[in-house]
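Box S2. Input/output pair 1.
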Amino acid sequence: MAENEQNDKPINNYIKFSAMGFQMIAIIGVFTFVGYKIDASAHHQTKWVTAILSLIGVFSSLYLVIRSLKN
């Protein structure tokens, strides 16, 4: 029974880390999409809101990943 638990651990880690990657993609994508829609509705020449919100999405997703790795 101990062998089976050791074989399942790498699979669980793989699932956990790939889920974090998809979570990062989703967070960054949502922030970027919202910024794009705000820039499109305001008719901005330079897409500053998209750039700022995408950076906020990157930093917030990195924060969530670092916080979940500590657990």
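Box S3. Input/output pair 2.
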Amino acid sequence: MTKKIQDASVIVDGGYQPATVVLKKGVPAHLSFKRISEKGCLDTVVLPDFGIKEKLPLNQEKVFTIDTRIPGEHQFSCGMNMFHGKVVIK
């Protein structure tokens, strides 16, 4: 029997919607970011706790696999650390 995979999506448009994503501990997760605006520094997303720093293509989903074994709050931001969000694992 395979484990289910959690899917969470964030729209990037002058910030992050939603800014908080909640995931269940121990269940594999895919977190996708879709940038729909060319404005600002939101063309890069940084998730330091997961070792991720990636460019976000315009109008395309970029999917990351998130390790949910460690509970807590994990911050993410744009490349210039001006816009913020978080992944909460519980």
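Caption for Box S3: The longest strand covers residues 6-12. The chain has one domain: 6-89.
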